[in-house]
Amino acid sequence: EYSPIAIWEEDFSALAKLQKIIQSKNVVNIRKFLKENRNLVTETFRHIKVLDVNKAALHLYGVKTKKELIANLGKTIHREALNVLVDEFASLLEGKGFYAVEFKSRTVTGRIYDVSMRVSVPEMYKDSFERVIVTFEDVSMKKKLERDLLKMAQTDGLTRLYNQNTIVKKLEEEFLRAKRYNLALSCMMIDLDSFKKINDQFGHQKGNQVLKLAAHLIKSGLREVDFVGRYGGDEFLIVLPETSLENAMIVANRLKQIFTDGKSNKQLIKLIRLSIGIGAFNPEETKTVKELIVKTDQAMYKAKQSGGNQIAVF
Known about the structure:
- The chain is 48% helix and 21% strand.
- The protein is α+β, with helices and mostly antiparallel strands.
- Helix 13 links the parallel strand 9 (274-280) and strand 10 (311-313).
């Protein structure tokens, strides 16, 4: 009763009835059968009875009494719940006396949170399912911490764009997708012209401001489905899914125009010019992601060697 973990005692007898239906149909793959007959899953869930709950369960769902919780149980079902039920029922019907999962749930008042659920069937009830212990724990803070740590691991600390490892992984994912489904794919390597001179003349603090502004402006000129990361120093790698070479040229010109217009922070923006190299996936000529990056990088150096502030294609 005084456990900080929400504990429910439930009667899962309806699951025994579902088991008889499955046996009568000689079902081999229970999980597949339940996925294909979700109406049986929802009907079984409706007949599960809540026998008792502790104070932590009431607090977790934002109610004061067990009666209030049972009356509003339908409001706590999130859209993920049906998939969880299919998996849970399949596991228990396969003879596993324990099931654990993390998913999204909601309180009676509608607040959505991440919950860790564990379902245990005592040995004496493994056939009848008349007594099942279910525990819930709010793991929202834990999941947020995990997401924050993952974001930190993927993000360049200065520009808040993807770091080199992550942007290359994004390119690898899109490369495989383009190869499998015969889709267009282009990428761009961007270098900030005369960045070393900016650092030497104005100092590294000003150089960092230039990098952050450049990152912001580059991202502003891309689509939601595009990816951009800091590849190293003052170089940025852009991944353009389902984008032909011709359309990549349009994007490159748009980016150059954004920097040329420079409506925000004109003092900084006038210091920045772009050398842009473009590489496009060609299934006959480009066999690996490394090859595509090398070709795009070579195109960028071609743009710099031609005087900078230009666009070049490999």
